[in-house]
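Re: duplicated header lines in exported structure tokens

Our pipeline writes sequence and tokens for each protein into one text file. With two proteins the header for the second block appears twice in some exports. Here is an export where it did not happen, for reference. First protein block:
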Amino acid sequence: MLNSRCLIFLDVLQKIIFNTSSFCLNILLFYKTLFVENMKIHSDVVNKKRYSKLLLLVILISCISHSYAQNGVVIDSLIQKLKECSNDSVKVTYLNELSWLNRTNQPDIALKYANEAKSIAEKIGFKSGIATSLNRIGEIERSQGNYEQAIITFNNALQIEKEINNKYGIARACGQLTLLYTTVGQIEKAFVVGQTAIKLYKELNNLPALANAYDRQAVLYEYKAKFDSALNLVYSGLEIRKQLKDSANFIYSYMNLANLHLKLQNNANSLEFNSKAIELATKFNDQVNLSRAYTNISLVYYNLKQFHTAIDYNYRSIEIKQNLRQDKSIDTNYDNLGYCFYALGEYDKAIQFYTKSLDLKEKIGKKEGLSAVYTNLGNLFFSKKEYDKALFYYKKGLINAETNSNKLITLELYQNIYKSYSITGQLENAVSFNNKYIALRDSLDATYRNAMNLKDKYQEEQRKNQLLEKDNLINEIKLKKKNIMIMSLVGGMILLILLFFTLFRSYRLKQKTLLAEKNNKINEQKVTELLKDQELKSISAMMEGQEGERKRIAQDLHDRLGSMLSMVKLHFKSVEENIQALRENNILMYSKANNLLDEACDEVRKIANDLTSGILNKFGLIPALNNLKESIEATGQLKIEVLNFGFDESRLDYNIEINLYRIIQELISNILKHSKASEVSIQLLKKEKQLNIVVEDNGMGFDVNQAKIRKGMGLKNIESRVNSLNGEFNIDSGKGVGTTITIDIPLNSIK
């Protein structure tokens, strides 16, 4: 038997999607989107084939949605909301978020959004919006190498955040200034604002931001050669990220640990952490940090004397930076390439890259790393035995290193200057710098030992934590098993939500495209509708007349002819009392006449019942259909299934019932005459404001596009009846696949 339960399932699915439509848009739109458009989905009763195709479409589109570019969805949504928004404060919020989302891939567009947000915010006196837009502008300036201008921008943002007493805003601006002051070599200023950021993030309990602040401060301790303090901060940041399960940002901890171990000459540990950073950056497609990790790992391979591998990683980093339009950050790669070519004995290439680095740093005002470049140039000329030039660059590097408190470079320069003076015979100066070298080396050795002890202590704690994690793993697995069912249900809902969102967006785009065409057809449709209304009124009047005439004839047969026949029967009865007095041949004629009279009375009653649909009139539509089913099945030609949902003891309007009965009666007649079917399913689903009827057969089907077939099967009469009830009539059929008739009737006149 054909499956009819899909009708109920589809109705329930319609309610689920309708009730969750606003929620699904809130998930997919950005968290600052303030208004959600209410939507409604109309779901019609469909046959089993269409339902199967819809379910397959859900699975396919949902799988694709997992790989969909979510950032692009958010940007498109914000742009649309921005166009529709009339509130200036909300516009500022949207523009700042658009600037943030575009800052990496399209910095020029991001800068445009931020400046527009700043302009509107200044116009309406929205200080929080001004500060946020300044942060966006400063971030872009910093990424493009405009460090001095970025410092001015972030200081302006900091001043506004202090005026409105926004602790988070103050901490945010201080964090950015920490990076900038470090870059331009103002280490003490960087240290002060970095401490302020850490303090405020602790007060706010903002753990992700606190981890980032720890990383920035660790770099400053590294400059001061306080490796124990630097490692302590990096490990603290890593613990926070593990606690938050923020695996995407482990990369910052790994890169800082890699750099620290490189400075401590632990090449194996540095290579391990750099490899982890590259793995994470590749996994999350983080091109910015991938280029940084390539730069860092090139230094490890340089220390391992694998110079060609180091050169390859630098070129990879340069390619990424150029694609991201971060040309001003390539100076570090020039330094590393200079190291490698110097080690390979290719001095001219080394000088070329060192000079490029020096020019770029001086051009953009980046004092970070200047002392290292001077040191490298000094080493190069020392190798060429040009000791005066070597001393010139060593001394320039020393001035920069001491100014920025870079003790590691200072230590190296003390030793290099000592060697240069020794070779050139300036013994007094040589002794002086040798003493400075020894004193600084001893102080750094103590720091180094503390750092190693801290590293060992941390690793021991990690081993203990791993044992505890193993003990907790079993309990977690049990808990996960309990949650599998819930997660599956939630996942299914999310898939449906994603499908709905995708279909809704497609629907809206299609509607916009068709809007112009629809406007051109409005006048023609109005004329057509007027003609159709007139036709429907005529058909309705005709059918009402037919039903009235049927009822009148039935009443006359029952009341007039029926009563007359009954009187004749009574007269025959009176004659029957004297029947014995009649002759025998008259008795036979009397019996025949009496039998014919009984048959005439029965036939009158049957005609009256047929004309007025007696069972329908007395008991309603469903009993009448069941009676029709029994009558047809008694012939053995057809097996009929009558299913109804939502019908109670209340009756429909008689006009609706009689029309529906005649429609179904006509459809069954067509099936008997034309379809060669053996089974028919009649399904009636009554809702609050609508009645759905589906009649399905397993017959040979037909081509619904052939007008001759439609006219020959009497379907136009059925369509007329459906139209008179303001309903919809659809046919789904094909040769060899059976026929499905779907009728939707609005119930606006229930008794």
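Second protein block, exported in the same file:
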Amino acid sequence: MNATPDASRRDNYLSQYADTDRFSRGAPKMVGLSEDGLRVFFLRSGGPTDGEDHLWVCDATTGHTRQLSEGQPVIGGYALNQSGTAAAYRTRDGLRLVDAVGGTSTALPAALDVADPRPDPTGRLVAYVGNGDLRVTGADGDRVLASSTGPTTRWGEAELVAAAEFGRNRGFWWAPDGGRLIAARVGTGAVTPWHLADPEAPAEPPRVVRYPCAGAANADVSLHLIDLAGHRRAIDWDNARFPYLHHVSWSAGRPPLLLVLDRAQRVAQVLQVEVPTGETSVLHEDADDRWLAPVPGTPCWSPGGGIVRSVDTAGTDCRQILVDDRPATPAWLYVRAVVGALGEDLVVIGSGSSPAEQHVYQIRPGGGQPERLTGRPGWHDGLAAAGTLVVGSALQDAPGVRWTIHGPNGEHRLADQSAVPACRPAPVLARVGERRIPAAVLFPRDHRPGNRLPVLVQSYGGPGQQEVRAGWSPWLNRQWWADQGYAVVTIDGRGTPGVSPAWEKAVWRRLADVVLADQVDTLHHLGERHPDLDLSRVGIRGSSFGGFLAALAVLRRPDVFHVASAIAPVTDWSLYDSAYSERYLGLPADGTTYQDNSLIGSAAALRRPLLLVQGLLDDNVLPVHAFRLSAELLAARRPHWMMSLGGVGHVPSAAILAGLLPLERQFFDQALKGSQVHNTDV
């Protein structure tokens, strides 16, 4: 990394943050690897303020790098065929297919609204989704393989909960021989239509979002085998009992594998698909009293032909990988993902004694202890194929992610042209209290011991996201807050990943009280460790689940938390998506769990300053959440502040956030840096 934006603005961190789009411009991203391990693909723009990504390939043997996308930039990412000899991507004008070996690029005919283009194994055809149809295009023209029958039927796409909650962002898969595809048909006719209107574009009609709320109808998802003539056969499994399609895997020489879940996500089946009949057989069925948490990359076939799957082992409280029902990873390794193979050995991502660190491990089929392939403390990710390992390393003492290719002839580094942040974070990481809760504290860079500081808690605090990590980037904005005169605290309590399955599942049906209790307890322990934390002046801010936590904190523990900023907060879990809400809380009709974990019923208890921030085009946590809480607060005559962001979705752009943060800072400064903490009694 060797570039910075305009030198005159070098010390203006927020301007730099916006100009570089969170320091992502010029950095390698979306790294991919060919199955023979010889080519490493990635997107990268031309520099720290260049927002146009291009596709690059690096020879894993020589380290030579060349650009594959000439002319127009890549839009929305790219996809490789299974051998990595071809890549497809979208441009402003349509769709392009690239010969990754020879380097030639071809524009292919395509319908409007091209989405998710994926080349076939031969590198001659590209399948994609266009206007809800599954289509295939090549030199001989573009044609429909499966046609939608109206606005509530779409082919080849992932439904909302699959993309948001299961990490499945695709809806079709090429056969290894290129003769057919597996494709999902998604019907949303029974799903409630919600509407999002953009006040910045009053002439445009509202956008319709088929949003499956907790307890309501989900999308109807089925799978089909489709040949290149458009003939299709349904893949048969018990959709009524197992409506969630979690994962699809189809590798050369092996039948396809599916992972399906029941609606409660407590029972899962690994299915083998017979081609071309579409019949399925059950290879494994797993169950859990609370919920199942399949490891990304599983199930799949091992290089030796065994079934690779994941389990949460109750006796040892660990998340393990099994190969043909035999444990392949030890109890001490918390497995996060399976990311490929080196020869006959599996390669996994996991954490050992420290949940703040993530490393790459090589797992041998005969058992024994895994070999850790990443040395320095940090947050490492990776890909593996044939004899090549590609590692992305986020280190505590260096910005960005360093991508290193461990290839046949040694190591090569992917060039990084991103900006060096003007802010240097210095978090103090620890395990705190009897539960050894992961936490971090950041002080201002010019802090002098003995100078007591107001505290700003900035946690996500809930399932699915871990924030106390041994890296650099997660702490940049927190250090900016610290440099405004705060001691910034982040706490990963029970429910967050990285420690153990039991740790995560402790929040079952008790999201609100468990996550809030851990924030409170850990904050007090940190106050004992760090006397400069002034616990008589504590603010809290967060987004999404963190927004729920921030509002929850001032509503239910105003004795501890004195001011809150809640960005895109979930305020009523019955209004959030079915897969997430039901996984942790069950069904809304089952007792009072949803009321117990809702912010709406606690509105009248507000006694502290609360700022609600909501993007009006948010299709994840829809605006109804913030507005219903605001309405309840007004009805209870509880003063609060509301900021609506026109044209903004769930995650504000870097430019929007750079404008929002100073406004939030003024809000916290007024509440915490005056002569006393403000109440809002009327």
